[in-house]
């Protein structure tokens, strides 16, 4: 498929991950790491008893603890959120005039604890990231953390009416790529108009952060190329003991960022490129750790550093999550949600949704499949699998490029909407002994999918892209979305695609709706309406629709 070059990039690219670390990135077990995490978690819980908005004693401690699985009372995170609300209210929603990474850091922390950054004391903290010029003002940190923040929760790019330049993911990606230095890495101001002496040499801290932001876009050739060049640069810069130096001194933070980058990219810490004299980046990080669980900033320090402790902790957590096959540190589809104890939330969603539609809670957080690591639809697949909306073909295989049957779609869409089962038999080829019997009858009862005749359903028949659009649009209507488009609007949306005339008349309105709402990507120049749809594509469509309908 050809790609339409636009400034607007859809949430589909948000999903590109990758999106999750590969399973078994490190060894099968690491008791030393587990013990270190438990001790540092306990240390942080005791030293950061009242977390506030801030680079120290705030978001990094909250993110690390929330992603570690350490047993922290819910009241701890609620206390942090109350502090955030009070701070945001007091400053009128403006966290900083220039440093827009303040917004990004808080967004990531709120996502980690299952809070909505779009509504904090009545303020939408995401909006600031829609201001491109202010976001990039402070150097490469700006676009890097804007992408990490947006992608941590799969958030759409916010519209900022006050921005001189409305940001897009494409703009932020291009900013990172165009600032890559000749040696392959990045520095804070290298490649920008503010570049000064010393900015032309790559900084492991900034390079690691840039790689974390790019990890979810590895299906793009230009991103993959930049990533490989940066990895080669960082391998060459690595010290003999596995760590990094900056400004002439070996320090923890550089190793933290590069270790976290490898975890986000799904690269083993044992990768030969990053093992020096038998020492890995994880070994380097652990070498800065004190006996009480705190961390030093440099190898020459005699005490501890709170900032270093918080950063060292989340790097260890990133490594542990990779070891355990969980989603990576910043891929937060498995973060907690407001629905408690597995209960559904019938009140969530859009006004006008059908009373039977309910939100599916997270019941299997962290689930992933080996064959979707780095896949462009990984985030969507993991988000649905974590709610048991969609399953793999086996415990560790999803088979993303396989087609989907009509019965499989009926099951997935019924689960996605949390609909109560309808047992009344409707078709001769869907009997009570068939696994799909209740799903087919339920989907048909709610008007999402029809039989091929009054007596036949054709459960094993495959689904085309235009059929998927029609059924997904019907599901969206049940969720309260306005799916109606006037004839002129349908024509305007479809006219940008070279093959729209091949779409069936009965499918065109639904196709236009799905494209307008970004349920289908607008980045392609072909719709391919008659092509059989893949499992990964169905997952992406339902993920997009549920997100737009406030059902996730």
Task: Explain what this protein looks like in three dimensions.
This protein is mainly α and 552 residues long. It has 20 helices and two strands. It has helices at residues 11-15, 31-47, 59-68, 74-90, 101-112, 132-136, 141-152, 169-178, 204-214, 221-237, 252-265, 281-286, 306-323, 378-385, 406-417, 437-445, 465-478, 487-494, 505-516, 535-548, and strands at 244-246, 249-251. Strands 1-2 form a two-stranded antiparallel sheet. A hairpin with a 2-residue loop joins strand 1 and strand 2 (249-251). The longest helix has 18 residues, at 306-323. It is globular and about 80 Å long. It starts with 10 loop residues before the first helix and ends with a helix. 52% of the residues are buried.
Q: Tell me the quaternary state.
A: single chain
Sheet with the most strands? 2 strands, antiparallel
Number of helices: 20
Q: Report the average pLDDT across residues.
A: 88
State the helicity in percent bands: 40-55%
Structural class determined from secondary elements: mainly alpha
Radius of gyration over C-alpha positions, nearest whole angstrom: 24 Å
Order of helices and strands: HHHHHHHHHHEEHHHHHHHHHH
What attributes characterize this protein structure?
single chain, disordered N terminus, globular, 20 helices, two-stranded antiparallel sheet, 552 residues, mainly alpha, 2 strands
Q: What does the secondary structure layout of this molecule look like, with pairings?
A:
Layout: H1 11-15, H2 31-47, H3 59-68, H4 74-90, H5 101-112, H6 132-136, H7 141-152, H8 169-178, H9 204-214, H10 221-237, E1 244-246, E2 249-251, H11 252-265, H12 281-286, H13 306-323, H14 378-385, H15 406-417, H16 437-445, H17 465-478, H18 487-494, H19 505-516, H20 535-548
Antiparallel strand pairs: 1-2
Helix pairs in contact: 2-3, 2-13, 3-5, 3-13, 5-7, 7-8, 7-9, 9-10, 9-11, 11-13, 14-20, 15-16, 17-19, 17-20, 18-19
